[in-house]
Amino acid sequence: MVNQSGSEQETASKRSGVRAASETASENPDRVLPALVFALFLAGTVYYFTWRVAVVNWVLWWIGLPLLLAEIFSVFNTLGLQYTAWPRPVPRLHASEDPSLFPIYLMIPTVNEGVGVLEPTLRGALSARARYREAYPQAQITIVVCNDGRVAGAKDWPEVEALAARMGVQCITRTVPGGAKAGNIEHARQAVGATENALIALFDADMVAEPEFLLKTIPPFADPTVGWVQTGQYYRNQGSAVARWAHDQQLLFYRLVCVGKAAVNGAFICGTNVVIRAAALDTIGGLPQNTVTEDLAASILLHPNWRSLYLTDVLALGLGPEDLGAYFSQQRRWAAGTFAVLFRHWRSMLLPWHRGLTLPQRLQYLYCCGHFFSGFRDLVCLAAPLAYLLLGVTAFRVFSVSSFLLHFLPYWTLSLFVFWYATRGKAGFRAILHGSILGFGCFPTFVSAFLSALFSKRLRFVITAKRRQKTGGWQRLAPQAVMAALCVAGMVRFACTGNRSWLGLVSELWMLYVVLLLAGMLWLGAAENPETEQKLVRANLRFRPAFAGAGLLAIGVGLFVSQQGLGRTQSISTQSISTQSISRPLAPGASAAPHQLAWAGGSMQNMTYTVNARGQAIGIAGDAGKPRDLLWPFHCLPLVPMQIVPMQIVPMQIVPMQTASDANGF
Predict the structure, then answer these.
(1) I need a surface site. Which of 19, 107, 395, 490 has the fewest CB within 10 A?
(2) Quick one: pLDDT at residue 525?
(3) Which domain holds residue 312?
(4) Residue 627 falls within a domain, yes or no?
(5) CA-CA distance, 224 to 176, in Å (whole number)?
(6) What pLDDT, in 10s, does the model give residues 175-215?
(7) b/e per residue 494-503 (b: at least 16 CB within 10 A)
(8) What are the backbone angles phi and psi of residue 457, rounded to the nearest 5°?
(9) With 0-12 CB in 10 A as exposed, 13-18 as middle and 19+ as buried, what is 121?
(10) Would you say residue 540 lies in a domain?
């Protein structure tokens, strides 16, 4: 929040208990430690990427370049989080008006949620109005139900009117459609005269306001430059596994990201649990009606001339998605709407000569829009190692184990530390785990939303379902299930080849991490029903020792096979071609019999070499073969041939084949 000057506003602030986001920082925040953390991460990033660029496989650029860009995207995400969480001085309010004299409208748009969902929301609004009038008896507060059920064809729209009449609140029912949620609100706003000096509090049909809502959100409007005051969105139906996980996923956004955005006047409207100055909306012609994310679009138009605040208090509780169908629908609407806003307003964010937004505001909007591009990052980070395990196609040139560890481990460690430092005290391990699983599992949804926005496919505004649907979560997880199966197949296929290269080990470990994330999504799909969730939890506790024993047994067998040298793979690299040969381990001084060496583009006939006493391959010789199709281990599915440059055979050093942990990756 912001500090308020003036004795009148100071008294009102104390009386109402106003606490905004920026009050979490001191007047003169300590920036020494954050600066040190930033410097260390930046140095580690530069150190890693100077090496990372050098090992990109530019021959297979179509897999090497996307993976490099995906890693760079992750760096910008981390830098964006650091910038947002950077400690900043508290902005100040300059009170010159008495906001308790402004007419206040509590507007609740509804379509087909039903009176069972709407009634608790109306009771919350009545409670908030009563509490505010206790402090300010002169306050003019009108509660308005914006009923869009008739134009949407909802069967119970007359029941909404009857409920409003029974509870003594006003109901505006639209008869002409258009503009989705924004059109519904704007129609009601004009009908009741909520313009000029009025204040408009918006609540979704399921969001139940706390009694203190108006006492906390109205006083900041004593500063005439404040355009809106946003509060967080939290779910009360956490008996549902999906709603509980979705609630956990949002914690970092509302406890950390929104706080940082508010410190640079970059907190945008989140659609509900917000109070907006009507005069601000009047300056842009009302809420934009050409997008499904009218809140984000309105914020970009308003921010050049109005200030935004964010309150950290939990002032309303709503209903989260009860099943994965509702969750994916919600995420798709947010993603597609955000992409559409980015395509329409990219000049405001990117072009320096485009007046309006400040540089910090531009960075915050780009950071917000960039979140949904994580779907492409996750897809690439899944596809690249999978292509290596299944097809032998690698995004890297040859590199040594020591080189990889020397560059990657410091960068990876610093990345984890930076994330922990920025999020400490904001969310626990459970919230971060659930958020990671849901975020990764949404990559098909985000990619699909981008394509819809790119090709101007108009997305219909779909209300997040408030009741569990009949179809199960498994039916909505087909892409995730297919990718999990491919990952397992890749790991099994690669293990059967006997390859012990370092890159293979890294790829398999990454695939294991991906499989665990996807397994979490599949578990959530099975646990949509609370009763099923309890059965799964009990089964997990019962069989956990067996799972642990099986895992240890698998590790032991793998180590035994590795030590026995069964099916070892020796990696050979020429100037620009990475190749593989499956052969028996050779002792120092032994010679390899002539045999064929195959790779993803050609083959070498009659290849021979000798291993000297130091374990170095010497006397490599052979005849270059013709490009051919790369065959699977069982030679059943030929792939698309890849043209390569003529191969030159040059002497090189390889590590001893007896030591799998020291083998070079490629």
Answers:
(1) 19
(2) 87
(3) 96-233+270-320
(4) yes
(5) 35
(6) 999 898 999 999 999 999 999 999 999 999 999 999 999 99
(7) beeebbbbbb
(8) -75, 115
(9) buried
(10) yes
